[in-house]
Amino acid sequence: MAVYFDKAIEKRFDHSPEETCYTDVHWHCEYPIIAVASKNEMKNADGAVTFHLEEGKLVDNVVIQRSSIVVCMRWHPIKKIIAVGWRSGEITFYNNQDNTFDEQSSMHKATITSLLWNHTGKRLISTDKDGLLAVWQCNQRGLVQSTPLYHYRLQYQITHSILHASKSVLSDDYAAVYCATTNGSLYYASKEGYRPCCAIGSPVLSLLFSSERQYLVVISQVMDLYQLAVNSNGETSEIMKVKLSGRVSTAALVTSEIMAYCCGDGLVKFWDFDRDENYSLDITGIKQIGKAEVVTCIHMDKSKGVLAAGTNKGHVILWQHRNDAVSLSPSHTAAEPKWEFIATADVKNLISQIQWNTAKEILATNTWKSVHILSKQILNSHYSNEVVAMQVSACEVTVEHCSIHKAQTINTDLYIRAVKCSQDYLALADGSKIVAYECQHSKDVIRNVGSFDCETLKFLIYEQTIYTLNKDGIQARTLQGTVKQVLSFIGDDGRPLAMDRASHYLAAASDTGVVKVWDIGRREAKQLTLLKLPSNYPEMCGDVYTVHINSNGGRVGLLFRKGDQSTSIVAIMNTETSDLLLYDFETNVCSRPLDDSLPFEALPETTQKEQEKLKMNIHNMLPVKFHWDTLDPKLLAVELAPSLLSIRTARRKRALKEIATQLGQKYASLKEDEKTRVAAVMFLSPEFGMMVYEVCQFEKSWNSLLSLSVPHLYFTKKVTGDGPSANSEKHPSESSLQLTVSEPCTVFRRSLKDFTGFRADDQATLKALLNFSFQATVGNMDEAFKSITSVRSKKVWENMARVSVRTERPDVAILCLGNMGNAIAAAAAREAKNIPESEAKLALIASHLNMLDEAEEFYKRSKRYDLLIKFYQAMGKWHKAIEVAELHDRLHLKTAYHLYGKNAEAEGEYQVAISCFEKAGTHVTEVPRILLDDTAELEDYVLNSQDNSLKKWWGEYLESLGEMEAALHFYELAEDHFSAVRVLCYLGDMKKAVQVVDECGDKAASYHLARRLETEDVKMAVRFYCHSNCFGSAIRLAKEAHLDGELMGMALKSSNRDMLEVAKYFEGNLQTIDRAILLYQKCGEISKALELCFATQQFETLQRVVGDLNENSNPEIITKCAQFFADHGQFPRAVSLLIKSKKYFEALDLCMAQNIPLTEEMADKMSEGLDSDSKVNMTPCSDNENTKENNRLLERMAEVCMYQGNHHLAARKFTQAGNRIKAMKALLKSGDTQRVLVFAQVSRQKEIYIMAANYLQSLDWRENPEIMKNIITFYTKGKSLVSLAAFYDSCAQVEIDEYQNYTKALGALNEALKCLNRAKAKTEGLEAKIALLEDRIQLVDKFATARRNYRENAESSIEACMALLDDPKLDVAVRLGDVFGLLIEHNAHIGNYQQAYSYMEELKKRLPAVNIAFYVDMKTIENVHQVLGIPLGSGAGVEAEDVEEEEEEESVDEDD
Fold first, then answer.
1. Cis peptide preceding 711, ω within 30 of 0
2. Exposure pattern of 150-188 as b/e (b: 16+ CB <10 Å)?
């Protein structure tokens, strides 16, 4: 805990305190040195300036004294140089570093009004009451030149001035300033000159400037508030102007957008320029502040965000500004979200001035008669062997002995800054002196045993030795200060920073990462080990600032910091192996940087979950204190504080929740409280590193973690204002020591979770429990249970059961319950064994151990919502029970509502009970039971209820009392028409009863009314019997009354039995025989209906009856009907009936005979009558007789379809019969090429492939390559190589005849030859074909080669052609016209027209009917005839008509 201690500054020895009045104080912005201005109050003159350090001591008795009064002071922004302005106009300069003085008195002749240094200290601006403004130049030493750089004289007196800190101008000599004058004008002055920039209208009371936002704030004496925007040239523009209430005494910008001011009342007021809103802090709500106190002055430490206010009663009040606060609404903001009260202090007199030192958290207060310096200090405490020393004020310490429960308070003359204790001794230090005391707790005596000068706050006490730490090492001193031994740090050991003691072991750490351990239990300390941190530890962890050693000296713990902020890392070093273990609380990761990673995945799953749950409470926190257990060397505790990020996040969430509450919204995910400090107790495992054992949340009254001594954690309590003053100065006489004996109040002791109720004097059990806790933490429950088998304490067993629940070991928890000696716990153990779900077992055990949160969580995880509902009901959380039932277990929802109603009824909450009974659906019985004693209220409830069953019950209740009219009313309200009609019939009001039945149509009411009307009105009775669907009774009455006209309609609506009776009734009358037939048909007596039709020749009726015949009807009857229709020429109906009677062959014969189309529907119906094994038979038929008969029928159907031209259906039926050849033939006749292709591919039979290929050859395969491809494929799959060769031969001939492409023809012939060669082994008589084909291939190849080589070697090509003409087999392979054509073209081309003509004549001789134009280009023929002078029609083989036709066609083409 931090408090503020106040110290009065040291008085001047040459000055009377009664005559001194302090007029001004001013801190240096970089150093903790303050300038204090004073005057002689009696003479109102003789001003002086003294300088004091943060402790209040005078600086070398330096005094600046003049006969005038100090009016303003200003420190240099960098150097220890101060400028002092006097009422006489002089400016005095004092250099604290050089202890030199300087003075300027030539420029200003009037009172100095302000002094301002620019941001670099190279310019000083001074103003006075005559309106003179001067800018002075300062050299590197800070000395001011004798004459100013420039000066201006304004027309009016300058009252206020402030620097213009422009962001755009960064030069060292920049010195622009705004000045306010007595006439209410604002001027801007710079080295370019000065100019007015704004007219305020009245004198200025306060002038402020925001350098961050670049705006001026002006408050005039008439309380007008101006906000003026400024630019880099100093020009201003008005942003806002408002009127303030009250009289402003002090104003300050606390942030870049918020101004604070006080007006002589109990409020500190704020104006938010961004939101254009104001709010205030009321000091009268603070405990120590009186109702009549007023705020006199304020000052803000912007670097720390702390606002200080002084009052007229001498109180100092501190608030912390929270930058992450969230406004509650757009129009109003309360102060509480932005400012947090910190502390108060009392300096007794009216505070006229208050000022922060920004270098340190030090505050100066001026009360005119005294100046006090308030410094923030952490209260010191120390624990050793159950003795606690706790500082409670600046000079006061409380020593408490925990074992005997006594506390002693000591008042000393030291300003205590460090406290250490042992079992018998206490040592205090103030930084320059150490005082030792002997504590005799049994006699309540503390006596001073020694003191000595020592400038250190880091020391330890062990037995009668005090160890002090300095820059060279550690000195072992006697209680009187005599140095007995020096534990040195030399060379690379570095400078020691921290030390710690546990038992007789001492550890110290240096700034170079060296850690030394000594054994101090001997006469002289002996060094045991020297450890060294990795060289990169400052970058990895930070700088060491505390060291801690465990009870056996085997481990050393280190905490680190960077700057003033603690880092998130704790380091553990093994003094024997030098192993290093790091735990980062920001990420909750434990690691060995110099070794392999820790095997956390080897932990049991439940242990991992428990660790994750515990680590969530310490995530993103910073370690601030570290303590080893005094007994167990592997147990430690770390005090953790939330990081700045987590604090801001928590505060923002809380502020958002407050906003949501005001707006009526729900923010269930936001936590209500901020993250507080916690104490994390951890075990050090050699396998898994640091394992979290327990996380203890700090209570509001706790200050810090003091120590860990199993079985307790020790915490210091916060000091309240009820005891001795926490901040008032104590000055007891040096020769006396004030001692007060009191009850212990400074330490709180909390048991660890597994040690609740444990007596610390049982050491054996203590060690067993420690081992149990360690083994349970690392997940080794078997070893944990073994360690406590000898324990007899029931409380210990209960704690063990709790641990077993947390580690999810129900088997161990059940054993622990059995050892608790509690009958209820034993019953719970037996009950838990019968629950199959492990989580549900744990939940039941946890509930009996009062671990309600854990029980709730286990029930949720087990999804046993029925047990969770019972759990909530047992706890009285009825709303949660109902919520769970609504979301997860609606089966028990009504039960939950009913039980809630019972509970509410027992507690007298009848309206809640009634509401629950209504939701449970049990209000019909429960509500009347509750309200039965008050029939009037019960009747009102029934009337207001929407439940008709309740109204019906009330009607029955009234009917039992004989109140028929009232009962009738409630029956009508309940819409119970049967009861209403029953009462009306009882009252004899038949007319109204008939009306009610007609309106409602209720069947029960109709039946009751019909029974009453049987003797009075038969027709009405029959009618209402029909309304009630009681047709049997209606038919009975109609037959008795001979109501034949209504009988038919009733019979058709009634049952088959009633229809049969009415049909028999109609059968006896020839006039109604058709009705009888219809009723026989409706009731399923088809045979009877047909007999009557045949007997009475009712042909039209027969047509309707036949429509109801199906396969389940009598086949003989169906056959008879079919014959009847055939005799009368209705062949389609006859065929249909024959199919129904399964006379399939007769039906097919009739279709053939009478040409009745066999439709697909008819064929499917006949197929349905076949055996299931042969409905779709895609394989050859078996020898089974039934299958043969079915296939014969299918083939018969297919033949009929073929006869009728339905080839597709025929193909399907042939396929079903297994005759795929015929099916293929049917498809071929259909001409459906696509189905032919699909069927061939599906069937995979040689014959079908060949048939498909033959079919495809009949198509235009020359134009469709896909068909050609399928032909080749099918012949190949059908293994018909001879046919495939013939097809290739046909392809070759087509290429020759139509395209004269002998090259492609040659390829086709070669393929044909390949096919024949492959077929030669299986087919006889192919040798001749192969020989002929080879000759053809040879001839075609020769001619194709001649044509191909003609362009390159024409002569050889012509010779080859002439040789071919001599071959007698040429006509078999090559056309003569193609050979002669090549010769003719060649001779015509070379100009040998005569030879060309000779070849024409020879071709005509060989082929008399040849058309030479088919082989030779017509232009070539014309040229030959023209050159030789032979008419075109002579001997060319081309008729003149053909030539004319070709010429005409060419001319037409040209015209087109």
1. yes
2. bbbebebbbbbbbbbbbeeeeeeebbbbbbbbeebbbbb
Range 858-886 average pLDDT: 87
Distance CA 1131, CA 1125 (A): 7
Q: Output DSSP code: residue 493.
A: G
- d(CA 1265, CA 773) in angstroms, rounded, equals 88
Residues in contact with 1319: Cβ distance below 8 Å, sequence separation at least 6, in sequence order:
1281, 1282, 1285, 1326
Distance separating alpha carbons of residues 799 and 1194, to the nearest angstrom:
87
Least confident window among 36-50, 334-348, 984-998, 1108-1122: 1108-1122
Model pTM greater than 0.85?
no
Query: Does residue 1075 register a pLDDT over 80?
Result: no
Q: What is the pLDDT of residue 1095?
A: 64
Length of the chain: 1456
Residue 648's pLDDT is what?
54
Can you give the pLDDT at residue 654? 54
Full strand arrangement of the beta sheet holding 747-751: 702-709, 712-717, 747-751
In the predicted structure, residue 105 carries a pLDDT above the cut 50: yes
Distance from C-alpha of 1330 to C-alpha of 184, rounded to nearest angstrom: 131
Assign 169 a pLDDT band (cuts: 50, 70, 90). low
Span 603-631, average pLDDT:
88
Task: Using alpha carbons, list the distances in angstroms from residue 160 to 133, 170, 185, 212, 1269.
Answer: 11, 24, 11, 21, 108
* For residues 1046-1059, average pLDDT: 75
What is the DSSP-derived secondary structure letter of residue 403?
A: T
Q: Are the beta carbons of 186 and 199 closer than 8 angstroms?
A: yes
Contact yes or no for 1430/1397 (Cβ under 8 A):
yes
Helix (H) or strand (E) holding 1318: helix 1302-1319
Output the pLDDT for position 1433. 65
Residue range 1324-1383, pLDDT digits in tens: 667 777 778 777 888 888 888 888 888 888 888 888 888 888 777 777 778 877 888 888
**SS3 state at 74:** strand
Q: Which value, to the nearest 10 degrees, does the dihedral of the CA atoms of residues 137, 140, 146, 152 take?
A: 10
Concatenated DSSP letters of 1164-1223? HHHHHTS-GGGSS--S---S-HHHHHHHHHHHHHHHHHHHHT-HHHHHHHHHHTT-HHHH
Q: What is the mean pLDDT of residues 360-364?
A: 88
Q: Are 34 and 79 in contact (CB under 8 A)?
A: no
CA distance 272 to 885: 51
What is the spatial distance between Cα 710 and Cα 1319, in angstroms, rounded to a whole number? Answer: 104
Q: State the Cα–Cα distance between residues 1021 and 1027, nearest whole angstrom.
A: 10
Q: What is the mean pLDDT of the chain?
A: 80
Q: Which of 1201, 391, 952 is nearest to 727 (CA)?
A: 391
Contact 373, 52 (CB under 8 A): yes
First to last CA, the chain: 113
Task: Pick the more confident residue, 487 or 1245.
Answer: 487
- Helix (H), strand (E) at residue 197: strand 193-199
How far is 1339 from 212, CA to CA, in rounded Å? 107
Confidence of residue 330 (pLDDT cuts 50, 70, 90): very low
pLDDT of residue 1176: 39
Q: How far apart are CA 572 and CA 684, in angstroms?
A: 9
The amino acid at 1271: I
Q: Give the residue from 701, 685, 704, 705 showing the smallest Cα distance to 693.
A: 685
Q: Indicate left, alpha or beta for 473 from its phi (over 0: left) and psi (-120 to 50: alpha).
A: left
28 close to 41: Cβ distance less than 8 angstroms = no
User: Which residue carries 């944990």 as its tokens?
Assistant: 784
